[in-house]
Every structure is written in C-alpha cells, then in structure tokens.
Amino acid sequence: MKTEDLIRGLSADARPTHSLESGLGLALAAGGAGALVLFALLLSLRAGMPGLLMEPRILLKFAVTLSLAGAAGWTALRLVRPGARPAGAARLLLLPAGFLALGVAAELVFTPATRWLPDLVGHYALACAILVPVMSAPVLAAALLALRRGAPDRPAVAGAAAGLLAGGIGATLYAFHCIDDSPLFLLAWYGLALTLTTATGALLGRVVLRW
Q1: What average pLDDT does the segment 49-76 reach?
Q2: CA 145, CA 148: separation in Å to the nearest integer?
Q3: I want to staple 103 with a disulfide (CB 3.0 to 4.6 A). Which of 3, 48, 60, 140 is the partner?
Q4: What is the C-alpha to C-alpha distance for residues 106 and 160, in angstroms, rounded to an integer?
Q5: Where does the signal peptide begin and end (predicted)?
Q6: What average pLDDT score do residues 6-15 get?
Q7: Phi and psi, residue 148, nearest 5°
C-alpha cells in the first residue's frame, strides 16, 4: 500500500461518526413520529386525559410500558456489540416486570374475585392485541435500521430486544387511548401484543442484523 493511501485511510477512520446511541435516538424519533401519525389516523385520546394520569392503575400502565421501552432499548444497544451476554444485558428488564408483578398482586388482594375475569377480559382485548403491534411497526423498522451499525453475536436476540423496545413505545401510545386499566388486562393483552412485537423483531433481526 502506498503511503498516501494509508494516510487517506487513517484520515477517513478518524472522521467523527454518530454513536450507536445517538443513531438509535434519531431512529426512534423518526419511528415515533410515524407511530404518532398512525395513532392520529386510527385512534383518539381517551376522554379525560391527561387528568386521568393521576389514577394509580393508569400510572402503573405507563410505568410498565415506559420502563419496558427504556430497558429494552438499553438491552438492544448492549446486544448489538460483539461478546455481549444476553442474560447480563437484559437485567434492566426486571424493572418493568417488577412493576407489573406488584400491580397484579395489588389487584388480586384489593379487588373482589368476582371482578378478576371481567377485568382480565376487558372491553377491547382484540383491539389492544392488534393495534399495539401496528403502532410499533414504524418504530421497529427504524430501530432495526439503526442497530445495523452494530455487530451482534446473536442477531435474533438483538432483534427481539428491538421488538420489545418498539412494543413498549407502541403500548405507551395505545395506553393514551385504552380504557382497560386493570393490571390483569395489562398482563394478558398488552403482554400478548408485546410477545408479537418481540417475535417479529427476532425474525427480522435474524436477517437485518446479521453481519
């Protein structure tokens, strides 16, 4: 290699580039904008919002979905780096799981048993299971494109984390419309929707994040 070529190569390597974190942040902003457009087209803000945000059950919904999105995003960023251990990278996911477990326990203690099944079924279970993944789709697409700059050892696992991140954001948006506030509904139907987004992320990540 000529000396001039070597210098040019080193100079190119020295140019500042966006970090994975900033790249993912920009991607989430774009994907989030797309999700907001879908929300405006398909749904509407629940009557009484934002005043209802002081209700404990509604606070729990947002505590779970937002902490899930944050924890899954952190996990995804760790998993797209070579040598990452999935179990260690995913430890922050215990936070939303803990919030949900406390909410379900409180529901079972303080709500009559005759209300458990109706609260679990809710009013719009099918809508939740469908619309959360729909609103998560632009976020997932943007997140996977941003995470392509990484080099994960397990692309499907990293993709699953991206799917969980997108699902957390989609679930947060849907919660602004949802009138089913029981933690049992959150566990069953938001859980199903998040399972779908996570599985989709894993399938797409196997291809998109492979290097």
Answers
A1: 93
A2: 5
A3: 60
A4: 30
A5: none
A6: 40
A7: -60, -20
The DSSP element (H or E) to which 1 belongs, if any, is none
* Band (114; pLDDT cuts 50, 70, 90): very high
Model confidence at 18, pLDDT cuts 50, 70, 90, reads low
Burial of 8 (0-12, 13-18, 19+ CB in 10 A): exposed
Q: Is 37 helix (H, G, I), strand (E, B) or coil?
A: helix
**Distance separating alpha carbons of residues 206 and 211, to the nearest angstrom:** 10
Q: What pLDDT is stored for residue 19 in this prediction?
A: 84
Cα separation, 116 vs 92, in Å, equals 29
Nearest to 123 by CA among 189, 64, 170: 189
Q: Measured in whole angstroms, how far is the alpha carbon of residue 11 from the centre of its chain?
A: 38
Token pair, residue 37, equals: 């457009």
Of residues 113, 103, 109, the one with CA closest to residue 185: 103
pTM attached to this predicted model: 0.87
| Tokens 């070579």 belong to residue | 82
- How many percent of the chain have pLDDT more than 90? 72
More confident residue, 134 or 210: 134
pLDDT of residue 23: 87
20, containing H or E segment? helix 20-42
* Ordered DSSP codes for 115-179: GHHHHHH-S-HHHHHHHHHHHHHHHHHHHHHHHTTS--S-HHHHHHHHHHHHHHHHHHHHHTT--
Q: What tokens appear for 162 in the block?
A: 């991206």
* Torsion sign across C-alpha atoms 54, 58, 60, 62: negative
